[in-house]
Amino acid sequence: AQAGPHRAAAVDRILEHQSADAHVGQRIDAGLRAAERGARLTGQLLAFSRAQRIEAKPVIVADLVAGIQDLLTRTLGPMIRITLDLGCDRVPVLSDPTQLEMAVLNLAINARDAMPNGGDLTIATRLTHVAGDAELHPGKYVQLDVTDTGTGMPAEVAARAFDPFYTTKGVGKGTGLGLSQVYGIARQAGGTARIESRPDQGTTIRMLLRRTDITIEPDAAPKSAEADPATHAATVLIVDDDADVRRFLADSLDALGYQVTEAEDGHAGLRALEQGAPDVMVVDFAMPGLNGAEVAKAARQKWPRLPIVFASGYADTAAIEDVGGPDVSILRKPFRVNELRGAIADALRMADTHPTSGVS
Q1: Res 154 pLDDT > 80
Q2: Residue 129 forms beta bridges with which residues?
Q3: pLDDT per position as a tens digit, 157-195
Q4: What is the Cα–Cα distance from 231 to 255, expressed in whole angstroms?
Q5: Are strands 57-60 and 92-95 parallel, antiparallel or unpaired?
Q6: Where does the chain show beta strands of DSSP type E?
Q7: What is the rounded CA–CA span in Å between residue 232 and residue 234?
Q8: For residue 148, with 0-12 CB atoms within 10 Å meaning exposed, 13-18 middle and 19 or more buried, which class applies?
Q9: Each residue's pLDDT tens digit, 332-349
């Protein structure tokens, strides 16, 4: 996650000044798509570690499944034939997209393991109405079924499959947390998860996710990296031990019209703060000596209202929230220039609402 966290946004900068050669543009675009796929995969892997904060938002389940089809194909291998039967009902559910992707991937991997000689995996979605269910409130739900043609489970195993730490796999081959996480994700979405399985007749894991009335906001159109008039007087302190990342951030913010100061580690960042508070501080989390949370805590002791943006590919969310609270701004590497622009703009709006002031 940390090897090339700035590449996707760096490609954004190249696209602004790309050659007129159409082939160059096509190659840059292909590289950007590859970087974005890598970012999604990194997020999916980090989700297994529970390192990232759950951020529930309206999600179209069929679109989410379609978006990870390539990942499923690469992960499951050529012996598994994948069929997607995705309903056309564009009904949103309220869930964390990364966590829900993780659940689908987890179920697909379990299905693959149940088909050691290959087989068929079907992922289907449809809208269903629930009534008279002791576990669920009545209403509309999106049903997500993951069905395999594998070995199946006896009734006593299926009855315990969602229990934490319960596994039928050998020592070192399973933690017993996968299906319990799936169940937890379904419950967080106002639904549940269930199993239909018989020995030698395959398995269906069904997630029922409650419909939400919250509308999906359309993605904002990307802005060019030209300077905003309001940013010319704003100063940003960058604290990051990776020289390449610092250079990219500094170049990007300079192009956006900010005045930039750089610090190569946490101690250097605190020394820079002794000279006065910037309008915004952008700080990495994983750094030698002082990590980003420790830097932010020390900075807030002198400048209690200093807006801070954490830019990190892997971070201990709990440690960050101890400093900044549950609404702390975290810019997940790799990110795009437009995401950087938005994070800094939000931080400046915070500064306008709560002006920075020192304490003696």
Answers
A1: yes
A2: 140
A3: 888 888 765 565 544 344 344 688 888 899 999 999 999
A4: 11
A5: antiparallel
A6: 57-60, 80-86, 92-95, 119-130, 139-148, 192-197, 203-210, 235-239, 259-263, 280-283, 308-312, 329-332
A7: 6
A8: buried
A9: 776 777 788 888 988 888
